[in-house]
Amino acid sequence: MFDPVIAPSGTLLGLLQRGRGDGTLHALTAPRAEALAALDHCVLRDPRHDWQLENRSLYYARLHLDLNGELDAMEAHLFGAQDVLDTDESRTGLALAVLGHLASYGRRDALELLRRYAAQGSNWAWALDELALRDDDAGLRALAAPVLARFATDPEGEAELAAAVRDAFEPRPWRLWAEDPRPSIATRVRAAQETGCFDRWQRQLRPTGPRPGWSVRAVFEWAQQGMERGAALYVPAARCLVAVAGPEDRPEILRAARDGIDGARCTALRYLADGNDPGALDLIEAAVADGTPAVVEAAVDAFERMRSVAAVDRARRWAQRPDALGAAAGRVLACRGAARDSDLVLGALREAVRGEGPDAPTLWTLVDGAGRLGIACAAPVLRHVYRETASSHLRGRAARALAATDPSFATGFAVECLWDCEETTRELAARHAETGDARVVERLRRLAADPAEEAEVQTAVRSRFGPDATLG
After folding, report:
1. What is the mean pLDDT of the chain?
2. How buried is 372 (Cβ within 10 angstroms: 0-12 exposed, 13-18 middle, 19+ buried)?
3. More exposed terminus of the chain, fewer Cβ within 10 Å: N or C?
């Protein structure tokens, strides 16, 4: 997956890439050709840093409908030579998802394009999943032969077919094909379904990892073996210690947390922190001071999970540290601190934005903390994060924090949030946006009538249409 280049937030392209509500509002007033060019750029060059977490498809599909856009650019993208050379599903997934939403809105050309891609394209499984939700039985049955033709009839091909059936997100097409009147179709699909079930059963009979009766030392060795393979097993290893370790094993675990090899040290630190051991905090501090990067990361993560009063008190002492433990202390206070910790949380928030920018991972927790603690003077920083972050999820968190800290939110950002790409942000806006703005009333009514809108958003919209609502 390529690393997306995000345009400045003040441009139409930058707004659309971020999935901001203002992107739609600006596109609808811009020259149509310019708006469509920016929209196609986003759909064909997925701008999300985490395409499996962030939403854009419904947002882009709605704008595509509003602009009455054509599908030529998406068709060229899907059926170009690159589809054979680059089969990563992230290259075509967003375009296919947009086509799926367009099909659900009644765009027949989008449905036909999905059918053709499912029959011919490299990311056919994604297209088939989109069709499984939207196509009729006849349309899906027509795809049985071209899809099965992708798999050879030798043992290797049948194994690949069984894996495809087993891993499908939407089973509807395969169930239809298992009942197909053509024996050549139904027989292969039923055999693949049975093989997939047998594979799952076999995996359950071959568990790996610790067994009953293992010693503390054996658990440490297993964690180290995983680390040497590049697999961080210290978290499940720490859970294993809960089952196998007794009071007599504490000295050995403390030694491992103090100076053990990386796998054992990470495991011991996690185990002691999860159990709120009285020595855990000092051992975490020591690990940050002299541990390898893997140990430092495990120690910081273990500290952030601690819920004790002692951990919060220690976070107040560590919050000024200019290292990973200091940053973690700020996040601990953001999650579990009290009103008296507001200055420390605000300081951590400002420092993170200054030092790492508006997309810093640490901001997710700090932004939530600013809202939880109601830090009114954090509003300027939160507005900056809202405008500049490329993460639609972080922007939604900033919106929630602004709703709790910024009196102007209801007449400002809440209005544009009604067009946001994330349903949780639209839900927040539906509950807060000031209805004195005529655009708000119209948008709420449109969301209430849109069959593609999430149920939570429509519930929030209906709450504004109650007996005391002022929607006119």
Report:
1. 91
2. middle
3. C
